[in-house]
């Protein structure tokens, strides 16, 4: 009863009734957990999207522009500035024909791959250049069109001139440096190894050879050189190769078979004939040198030393130009300039020679005065006069000093002959020029006969050596007498023995998977982990 009265009392009645709390529903999108977590997800999604988009764009660029990166030490697959400039400025149409499929060549070795890269890059840089891969077995007509081609080679051909050069890539584009400081072809290096020399490096001259090939086939008015045959002349492929590298066009001509020597030839080479020239052949040469009284022709005669024979007709022809080839070998008696050679230890035939400095030939060489020339088993070239009528004779290369003697061929079996008692001594010419001049006003025009004492002076043994200058002398002679600009090539050979960073196909695949799949997955997982952890905050 009392409780009931208490409930109905005025005091209790005046107390306001307690309000019931309403359930407040919170907005989850405004919570801190959501804000931090969602931002992480958004940033993660954006980052992944950007990476995927960049990956797609880069792949499209690579497919569209064939972008490649050369990571090799020394950039063995990167074309140098000299070749780039030539290719970019070339207006001629040039074709590179590889005589094997691309896959076979690429697997054949670094020099093949390098050559392919250079050719393909040239075609990318100049729309006039094309690259084709020819199967010689399925296309026999190709072999018949290009003399001497074989599988694994390269033909460079110019449409405008119709000329081409063929290269055996494996042999022509590789050199081997030995511990004597010089670089040699494979066959030469192998021969040198028999004497105890070792290979210290393998270098590629592919870029030099390609550029020289391009120059020689695209040059519109090249100097033409005729190499005579028909009288037992020796073949000097080394000198021919050197000339071709320096943009000369070299052909053979059988003097005995032609009615007249073509006016197209600026230079004739008579290389070590082992038979005397006929009077008729010499008359053809004499008429060609005269050139209808206009002059401007040049003959280079290399005396034979491998098989010495009597050549009275040739001797008379040279005498008309004030030259004479001695009947014996020059021996250098000064030990400072003589070198021992197996088989000739008792006669110092291998010797250092002197390049005469007060000539136009020396000016063309631009050499240090101390640079040397080497000769072995060389005959003396004598001047019958210095000047006579419109003839002038000039020594280009001579023996070092006057302490030299002539070892006559007749004394070969004479046990009593000695260097000390030799009858003919002094300083002797090794390469001598005889020139005939006419003037048109004050402008001189020359025809020349240059006589050298041996056909071996410009063979590979001497041309390839870098510590003496037979190659420079050879080119300076040809450039000077022909007026050839002598477009020089100064590309440095590239070593294949250096550490490289080539990317193999399997590595390329691995790198692609890493950037296209692995890294994005890692980023996504990391984003999810971060989001979950932040959600719990």
Radius of gyration: 40 Å
Look at the structure and give the mean pLDDT. 83
From the 3D coordinates, which CATH architecture of the largest domain would you assign? 3-Layer(aba) Sandwich
Low-confidence region ranges: 1-10, 69-73, 498-502
The number of helical segments is: 17
Which outline best applies?
A: elongated
Strand percentage: 15-25%
Q: Please name the fourth-level CATH homologous superfamily of the largest domain.
A: Class I glutamine amidotransferase (GATase) domain
How many individual domains? 3
Largest sheet data: 11 strands, mixed
Structural class: alpha+beta
CATH class designation of the largest domain: Alpha Beta
From the 3D structure, determine the CATH topology of the largest domain. Answer: Rossmann fold
Question: Tally of extended strands?
Answer: 24
Proportion of residues in helical segments: 25-40%
């Amino acid at each position: 009863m009392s409780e009931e009265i208490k409930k109905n009392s005025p005091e209790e009645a005046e107390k306001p009734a307690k309000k019931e709390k309403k359930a407040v529903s919170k907005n989850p999108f405004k919570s801190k957990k959501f804000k931090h977590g969602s931002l992480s997800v958004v940033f993660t999604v954006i980052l992944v999207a950007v990476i995927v988009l960049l990956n797609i764009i880069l792949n499209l660029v690579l497919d569209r522009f064939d972008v490649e990166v050369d990571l090799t030490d020394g950039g063995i697959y990167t074309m140098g500035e000299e070749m780039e400039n030539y290719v970019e400025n070339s207006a001629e149409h040039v074709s590179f024909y590889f005589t094997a499929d691309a896959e076979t060549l690429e697997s054949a070795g670094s020099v093949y791959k390098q050559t392919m890269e250079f050719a393909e890059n040239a075609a990318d840089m100049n729309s006039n250049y094309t690259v084709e891969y020819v199967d010689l077995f399925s296309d026999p007509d190709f072999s018949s069109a290009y003399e001497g081609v074989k599988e694994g080679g390269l033909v460079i051909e110019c449409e405008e001139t119709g000329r081409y050069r063929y290269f055996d890539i494996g042999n022509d584009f590789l050199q081997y440096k030995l511990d004597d400081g010089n670089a040699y072809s494979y066959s030469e290096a192998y021969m040198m190894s028999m004497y105890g020399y070792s290979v210290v490096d393998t270098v590629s001259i592919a870029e030099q050879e390609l550029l020289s090939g391009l120059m020689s086939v695209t040059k519109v008015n090249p100097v033409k050189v005729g190499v005579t045959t028909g009288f037992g002349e020796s073949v000097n492929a080394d000198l021919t190769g050197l000339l071709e590298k320096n943009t000369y066009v070299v052909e053979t001509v059988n003097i005995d078979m032609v009615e007249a020597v073509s006016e197209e030839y600026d230079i004739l080479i008579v290389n070590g004939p082992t038979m005397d020239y006929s009077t008729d052949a010499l008359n053809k040469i004499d008429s060609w040198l005269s050139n209808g009284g206009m002059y401007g022709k040049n003959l280079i005669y290399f005396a034979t030393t491998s098989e010495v024979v009597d050549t009275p007709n040739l001797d008379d022809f040279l005498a008309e130009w004030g030259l004479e080839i001695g009947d014996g070998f020059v021996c250098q008696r000064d030990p400072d300039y003589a070198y021992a050679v197996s088989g000739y230890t008792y006669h110092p035939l291998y010797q250092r020679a002197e390049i005469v400095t007060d000539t136009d030939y020396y000016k063309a060489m631009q050499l240090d005065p101390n640079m040397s020339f080497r000769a072995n088993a060389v005959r003396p070239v004598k001047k019958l006069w210095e000047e006579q009528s419109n003839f002038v004779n000039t020594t280009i290369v001579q023996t070092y000093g006057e302490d030299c003697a002539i070892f006559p061929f007749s004394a070969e079996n004479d046990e009593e002959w000695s260097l000390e008692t030799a009858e003919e001594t002094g300083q002797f010419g090794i390469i001598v020029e005889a020139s005939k001049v006419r003037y048109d006003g004050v402008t001189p025009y020359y025809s020349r006969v240059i006589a050298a004492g041996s056909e071996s002076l410009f063979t590979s043994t001497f041309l390839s050596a870098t510590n003496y200058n037979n190659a420079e002398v050879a080119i300076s002679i040809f450039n000077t007498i022909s007026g050839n600009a002598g477009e020089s090539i100064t590309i440095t050979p590239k070593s294949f023995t250096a550490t490289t960073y080539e990317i193999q196909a399997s590595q390329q695949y691995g790198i692609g998977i890493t950037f296209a799949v692995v890294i994005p997955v890692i980023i996504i997982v990391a984003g999810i982990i971060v989001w979950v952890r932040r959600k719990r905050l």
